[in-house]
Design a protein that fits this description.
Shape: elongated
Number of helices: 5
Number of domains: 4
Order of helices and strands: HEEEEEEHHEEEEEEEEEEHHEEEE
Largest sheet: 6 strands, antiparallel, barrel
């Protein structure tokens, strides 16, 4: 390669290097201008003050309970030998519908049937003893009548040649014995009457115990729980063993709701309650407050009261013991100004407040304060806070108008 050619190559390389340097410098300058140029994107997150309706609620959790639950037990001991049948002809089991008087189960009645026959025999014997005592009383009365007559005649004659002294004494003794025998006969009649009454009572007791061997439903309802099996022995002790749990009526149920002490003051009878169960996520059941129980419960240092809520359950959708979320309606407002709850919690830094309002912002007044966006600054507006539904809050103020951009947050840089 000649010397001139080498020089030309070097010149071209130098020109290319210079051109690349100029391009890099221009790109850096452009990037600096872009970054140094003020962003037109708003600095604050805002929501317009709007007018609408508001329903304030209190949320709590509760459990569905039947209006009345009957615990059916056994009053006699024995072995379960059979179960009855429900309205569909099936053996009594969980969920069986029953009517009042339906046979639920039978206990082996061999011993009680034998006791009943024994009581009948004792009654017959007591009746016979009563007849014998009555007859003995009549005999004693006749003996007394004869002894009195003999004694009266003996008294008229007296001890004489016609009546010896020994015969006189015999008549007197016979009269005294007849009187004593009559008193004994009368006592025997009283005893026979008492024995007869006891025998009748024993018979009634035996009949009742025998009837207890057939367990019947005391109400019309639905079997919630069957707690015995065929062949199981039930033994009553101080309390009757529980055999069946029956819900009297599931067309109407109660919900026992645990309400925190801070909210209980706003719960009153007749209050409307919306009930929602996870089993039916798209359905709201409507109920009413029936009563507030006064026996509070302390759980992990949280004091709660049980509130009874009545609700119709015509299709039986709300099953016993379901967990439901309850919303108590504590207030309604129509056509009021609303702002997000976050707007009442947000506060700016001092340098973000518009200069004319910085002194005013330092003085805290009653009620609350919301911040209105104005270019790259915010200005305070004092408001009176009303009801809230957990997301939106009712506000009032002389400076408030519908559509104002209220700040509830700031964009991340």
């Amino acid at each position: 390669m000649t010397k001139d050619r080498v020089i030309g190559v070097k010149r071209r390389a130098g020109l290319l290097f210079l051109l690349a340097a100029v391009l890099l410098l221009a790109a850096g300058l452009g990037l600096w201008r872009i970054r140094s140029k003020p962003s037109r994107e708003p600095l604050f997150l805002t929501a317009a003050v709007k007018r609408g309706d508001l329903i304030a609620t209190i949320s709590a959790t509760g459990t569905v309970e039947p209006e009345q639950v009957v615990d059916v037990g056994a009053q006699v001991a024995g072995i379960i030998v059979s179960f009855g049948r429900d309205e569909q002809g099936r053996l009594i089991d969980y969920g069986s519908p029953v009517k009042e008087g339906t046979v639920l189960a039978r206990i082996d009645d061999s011993l009680y049937a034998a006791a009943l026959e024994s009581a009948k025999a004792q009654l017959q014997q007591a009746e016979a003893n009563k007849v014998s005592a009555d007859a003995n009383l009549l005999q004693m009365k006749a003996n007394l009548f004869k002894a009195r007559a003999d004694w009266n005649r003996a008294q008229m004659l007296g001890p004489s040649d016609a009546l010896s002294r020994s015969a006189y004494d015999q008549y007197q003794s016979a009269f005294d014995v007849a009187e004593a025998s009559l008193a004994g006969a009368e006592s025997g009649v009283v005893q026979s009457i008492a024995a007869l009454q006891q025998a009748k009572a024993n018979l009634i007791s035996a009949q009742v115990n025998l009837s207890y061997c057939v367990i019947k439903s005391p109400v019309t309802g639905l079997i919630l729980d069957r707690r015995v099996n065929m062949g199981q022995t039930v033994v009553p002790s101080l309390s009757a063993p529980s055999l069946f749990l029956i819900a009297k009526n599931l067309d109407r149920v109660k919900v026992w709701v645990s309400v925190n002490e801070r909210d209980i003051g706003r719960i009153v009878p007749g209050q409307t309650v919306g009930l929602m169960a996870d089993a039916y996520p798209n359905r709201v059941f409507e109920g009413q407050v029936a009563k507030v129980r006064l026996n509070a419960m302390m759980t992990q240092n949280v004091l709660t009261y049980t509130v009874e809520v009545n609700t119709d359950n015509p299709n039986g959708k709300l099953l016993p013991y379901l967990t439901v979320n309850a919303r108590f309606s504590v207030g309604r407002r129509k056509g009021v100004l609303l702002v997000p709850n976050a707007a009442l919690r947000w506060s700016p830094r001092p340098r973000e407040i518009a200069p004319p309002f910085r002194e005013k912002a330092s003085a805290s007044g009653p009620g609350g304060t919301i911040w209105i966006a104005s270019e790259r600054f915010v200005r305070p507006v004092s408001v009176q806070v009303g009801l809230t539904d957990g997301k939106m809050t009712q506000v009032e103020g002389t400076e408030l108008t519908e559509g104002l951009p209220v700040v509830f947050g700031k964009r991340s840089s």
